[in-house]
């Protein structure tokens, strides 16, 4: 009965936190709508996003073309829907790449300490020494433009932040009693790191990852705008804005709607990240 009471209390506490967290609801709702638009793009798009119709080029938003058409007569609404697929994939894959590099680095550095910690953190500092956009630009200049190279370049420039966040979290829990108990009974270091330390140190990293998802999409769009990211015929929001830069003053819709899609995506993820931070913050209970 005591166990049931404990579970009920925990469930009630989390339910209360979620219900009283409007940022979480708004961010999750917006992100869900964007994901649904991306998944259902083949059925929601009224036109083939690659179909050119020069007879209808640069039309302002109207009943036939809700977001207007571009300089090749392609329907911008259809292209924005299909662009969501590419942008969301870029955000997800890049964050996963960054975690695959940063997670073991931060985990080992925080647990091992000493020279191992120093070496791993100094290597991370080398990557952090570059200005935020300079390293991806240099890597893409060497590797060439393309979606995979964009994701790889951003992931390499992003992983040191995850490594440092996880290292700090591991340092705060590695001296807990359950860690010393596991060491005393001969549990392997790998098991201690991944079974005992990682689950208890993931909260700040999860919050950061949820917020970085939007920034990755913004970075990828910026690189595509500069001609270093996605290449035609790939449909990507940043590339759409780049193609419209010479048309924007006279034909505003060619850049406004892809830009609005980026804005909504970044806003949704940031609201979701803020909501998660408030919900998972250990001082949250004191503010209720």
From TrEMBL:
Organism the protein comes from: Photobacterium halotolerans
Family according to the record: Belongs to the binding-protein-dependent transport system permease family.
Compartments where found: Cell membrane
Residue ranges of the TM segments: 23-45, 88-112, 133-158, 205-231, 251-272
Listed name of the protein: D-ala-D-ala transporter subunit
Alphabetically ordered keywords of this record: Cell membrane, Membrane, Transmembrane, Transmembrane helix, Transport
Any single GO CC term annotated in Swiss-Prot or TrEMBL for this entry: plasma membrane
One Pfam match: OppC_N
CDD domains: TM_PBP2 (cd06261)
Residue ranges of domain ABC transmembrane type-1 in the record: 84-273
Membrane topology: Multi-pass membrane protein
GO biological process: transmembrane transport
């Amino acid at each position: 009965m005591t166990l049931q009471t404990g579970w009920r209390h925990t469930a009630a506490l989390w339910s209360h936190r979620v219900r009283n967290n409007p940022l979480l609801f708004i961010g999750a709702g917006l992100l869900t709508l964007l994901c649904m638009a991306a998944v259902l793009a083949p059925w929601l798009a009224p036109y083939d996003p690659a179909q050119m119709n020069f007879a209808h080029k640069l039309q302002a938003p109207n009943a036939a073309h809700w977001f207007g058409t571009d300089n090749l007569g392609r329907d911008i609404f259809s292209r924005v829907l299909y662009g969501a697929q590419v942008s969301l994939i870029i955000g997800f894959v890049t964050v996963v790449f960054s975690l695959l590099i940063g997670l073991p680095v931060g985990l080992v550095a925080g647990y091992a300490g000493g020279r191992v910690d120093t070496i791993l953190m100094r290597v991370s500092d080398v990557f952090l020494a570059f200005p935020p956009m300079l390293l991806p630009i240099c890597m893409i200049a060497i590797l060439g433009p393309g979606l995979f190279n964009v994701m790889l370049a951003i992931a390499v420039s992003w992983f040191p932040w995850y490594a440092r966040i996880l290292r700090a979290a591991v340092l705060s829990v590695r001296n807990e009693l359950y860690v010393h108990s596991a060491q005393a009974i001969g549990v392997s270091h790998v098991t201690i790191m991944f079974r005992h330390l990682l689950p208890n140190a993931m909260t700040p990293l999860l919050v950061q990852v949820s917020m970085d998802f939007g920034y990755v999409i913004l970075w990828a769009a910026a690189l595509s705008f500069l001609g270093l990211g996605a290449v035609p015929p790939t449909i990507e929001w940043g590339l759409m804005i780049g193609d419209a830069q010479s048309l924007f003053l006279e034909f505003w819709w060619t850049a406004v709607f892809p830009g609005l899609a980026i804005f909504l995506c970044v806003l949704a993820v940031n609201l979701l990240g803020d909501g998660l931070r408030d919900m998972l913050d250990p001082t949250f209970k004191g503010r209720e």
